[in-house]
Each structure stands twice: as C-alpha cells, then as structure tokens.
Amino acid sequence: MGDGGRGRNNAHELYKLKQRAVEYYRMNDVPRQLEDLLNSTFYLQPPDVYGHLANCFSKLAKAPTIYKVIGRVVLDGMGHQTLKVEVFCTVQNQVKSITSAIIASHLEVLETAMPEVVDAVELERNEAISAAVQWVNESMTELLDGLEPTQQGVVDQLLANFFANKVQEDKESKELELSLEQPLSSASIAPQPSPPPPPKRKGQRGITKSTDSSIIDGHHAQLWKVIIGKTQSDERSDLYSTPWINSSTSISGITMLLEIQKQIIKIIDKPHTPKPETKKSHNGGKKGSTQIAGKLSYIGCLSINYDTIEQPLLLIQGICGNLGLELGINLYLAINCAAHELIDYTRGKYEVTTGVFKNPCEMVDIYVDLINKFPSITALIDPVRKEDIEQWDSICNALGSRCNIIAGTASKSVSKLLEEKNVSTPKSSGLIIKHTNQTTVSDLIEVTRLIESQKRIAILGSTEGESSDDSLADLAVGLGVRFLKLGGLSRGERMTKYNRLFAIEEELVQSGTLTPTAGQTFIDFNEEAPKAAEALMATLSSVSAGRTESNASCFSTKSEAVK
C-alpha cells in the first residue's frame, strides 16, 4: 500500500514535470521550429546533417550581449604604451571574446623635437593610457552590460555622456586645485607682469590628453558592412567603393609605388659628385648643387634633403620616365606641406629650404608656381598654418579648380566641427578627420555627412602613434570617404591597413558590388562664391518678403480692430 502511494506520487510529479516542459518548449516555439527544421533537412539531405542542424540552430539563437569589457596596456608600432580594449559577450550561453581594438595614440613627437619635449610627451601619454585603462576596467562593464555589440548608436551615446562627465570632473578638480593654491601664491609673492610667451620651436606643438572611445568597433571581419548599414539607413545602395583604389589595379598600383620608392633609395645611396651651378630657383637655392640625401622617417616615408622645392619632384618625374610611367596619367601626387612644422615663430616666416624664409603671401606664389610646373600635383595638405586665413582663401581661389587644398592639422576637431556645423574655416577643398579622443563612430558618421553636405571632401587619416589594428580600413570603406591617408609603404602597422583594404575590395569585386572610383574632381571657388552670394540674396529676399507679408497682416488686423 505504501509503495503504491509513492508510485502514484512519483507519477504525478512526473506528469507535472512533463506539463512544465511542454509549456516551456511551447513558449519558445520549439515544436514548430523543430518540425520545420527536420522537414527541410529531410528534403535537402545534406552530407553533414548535424553540421546543417547546427547552422540552422545558430540562426535561431539570441544575439550576443556584452558581458564584460577589459582594458590593458600594450605597445604600439613605435614601442610606446597604448590601450587595448577587449569586449567579451555572452554567445549561445557561453562567454567569448568577440572583438578587440588597439587604440592608436595621436600625441605626435617630431623627429626634430628637443629631448625634454619628447620626455614630456611620453609622460603625458603614459598618464593618459593609465587613466584610460582605469576608466575601462572600472566603469565600462557596468555601463555596457547587456547591450548588443551592434547597437553602435546606443553605445556611442552612453560613451559620449560618460566622457562628458569625466571632462567636467577633471575641470572641477583643476579649478579646486587652483583655488586652493591661489591664496598662498598671492600672499607670498608680489604680482609680476606676465612675460611674453616664449617663441615656439620649429615643429613643436601642443599636447592634449588622449583616450579613445571606440571600444566596440575593433577588429571585426565585417565591420565595414555594419558602418555602411548605419550610414545608408535612409537610402540603401547595393554598390560600394574603396578609398582611392582602382578596382583593377589596386595591388599593382602599390607595387608601382614601391618600385618608385626603391629607385629613389638607390639614387640616395649612390655616390655623387656635385656639379656647382650658379642659376638659382625662385626660393634662392642653387639647382642641383649637392647630392640628394635622405632617410626613411619614423612614419615610414622617405625624408629627402633638397636644395630647391622642385628637386624631389624632378627626381620622381625622372624615375617615372625610366619606368615608363607618366605623372598625371599613371599616378598623381599629393604633398603634405605640413606648414606648421616649417614656421619660424621668431620671424613669422616659413623656412621653405635651409636658411630661406618666406612670408605667408610669398608662400601663395610658391604654390601657384609649383602647380604650374607640376600639374600632376592634385592635392596640397596644410599649405599654410590655420592662422593664415587670408592665404588659405588666396590659395583656394588661385588653385582650387585644379588642385585639392586640404586642411589636416589646420582643421578643427571633430567635436568642434559638429558643434559649429561649419567646415569652411579655413577655406579648403576638404578635411582630414581622425578617430581620436572621445570621437565615437556615430560622430565620424555625422561629421562625414556634414563635410559632404557642404560639397567638401572627407579624408580619413591615421594617427601618429599607430598600431597593427586594421579597423581604420573598415571605417574608411564604411564611411565612404574619398581618400584614406595612411603614410609610407613600410612597417607592419601600416601595411596591415593596406592589406585589409585589398581584402575588402576583393570581397566587393567577387560580389559584384564594387563601384568604380570617381575620377579627379575639384572645386572652382571663383564660381562657387557668386552662387553662394545668389543663394544668400535669395534667402534674404525670402525673409524680407515674409516680414512684409507679416507686417501687412498685422496692419490689416489692427484696422479691423479699429473698425
């Protein structure tokens, strides 16, 4: 009797357990999904039946969600400390490392910088990296826990708020320190007139604290597709392009450039007996008076010593002729003038060659003369400092219709561009934008749209402290920028980005979705100005007409009231 009662109780418990199982599977739609899956598998009869079932089940699984974020110190391509962020997600009930990004430092140290400047930059970089690691490990997991890694917009907004709070905290902390120091300093030291600022050394520039907010968009096999999905959410396109690469000659084009570089190195290394000449160029140097010498710079570019500005261009022109190439047809040239590195602040002039100084107005004449002699130059980057606004206007008006005038260092930060909604100061054909500091992917998408909406060229540039992370190539393709500025054809951290571009291009070719790269296009600023004036006059006329109509309406209303 006792055993029978226990049996009935066990049967009842088993029945209730089965009922809960039925309800559980029914709520998750398991019976219908299994029936459809088994039926389709039977008709397909794949060779690997369990592999097929595994693939089908993976499509039914929930999307990965962020579980934790870890930051650690690693070394960049120059051996400097930088930040690596790794994102772990819950994927099919297991915690897996889903993506990572190595953040490139943008604290630039020029090769000509004084040792104390180098030490100061190194110290500030290390402090910034330590702060970034602390922020990531202490706050990011809690901030992003449970989000899907593809929710870039949500992640960017959370990160933007986080960094804004950190900046405010830092500001308040510095103000508090200053207020505590102020009474002591004012009581103990008599106020002295502030001395004039010391002259800025050639090549020296300001330093800002650097941490990067892109912790989700790291090394991802299809990152460019994710970004395209966000940039073209309103107007989808089935054709995509890669920056500056021609679909049929991308790798052969790089091979061609490497051959030119090899020939230049041969000429530099070749013993040479100088032939003195008395004829001088417009910048005061003697043509061909000394041997061309140079070296490979820390950013992987050939750094050539020259007597005249034309000398390295003539060298390239001659090598191209020997290789059966023609400048302006087979390849074009872009010059990173880096005017902020040429300025002598004591004279207020640019040192164009050793001992030869030119004022800003004379620089305009030099560039006009250079483009007249070498029409294959299709871009000048930072031809003068951002402070020389009039000269930017002059260069754009004189050369804009046949050469792109690009603002790199002279451009404002991404945050400033988005705040002001204006890309016209200084006047330029396009801007170089960089993924640094608190700039999010959403910010890059927005600023690219802003630049293109104002009929300017968006260029994505790498930072000075590079890493082997190749996601910059994905960003360039996803954002649809016209050009990608990477640096010289050397060093692994740079070549990985070129190789990533080739891989994306190959995928687009195979899928038939690669659109041909647009040819050379320029902005005629002399034609643009009258159009802008006409548009402004039309706007003012419309506003004036609206006010007149409004006044008439008010008068009519008042007249009725009088009656």
From TrEMBL:
Pfam families: Enolase_C (PF00113). Residues 174-212 are annotated as: Disordered. Residues 66-227 form the Enolase N-terminal domain. Residues 237-525 form the Enolase C-terminal TIM barrel domain. Transmembrane segments: none annotated. Keywords: Glycolysis, Lyase. GO terms for cellular component: phosphopyruvate hydratase complex. Gene3D superfamilies: Enolase-like C-terminal domain (3.20.20.120), Enolase-like, N-terminal domain (3.30.390.10). One of its GO terms (molecular function) is magnesium ion binding. Its EC number is 4.2.1.11. It catalyses: (2R)-2-phosphoglycerate = phosphoenolpyruvate + H2O. GO terms for biological process: glycolytic process. Residues 179-191 have a biased composition (Low complexity). Pathway: Carbohydrate degradation; glycolysis; pyruvate from D-glyceraldehyde 3-phosphate: step 4/5. Belongs to the enolase family. This is Enolase 4. It comes from Phascolarctos cinereus.
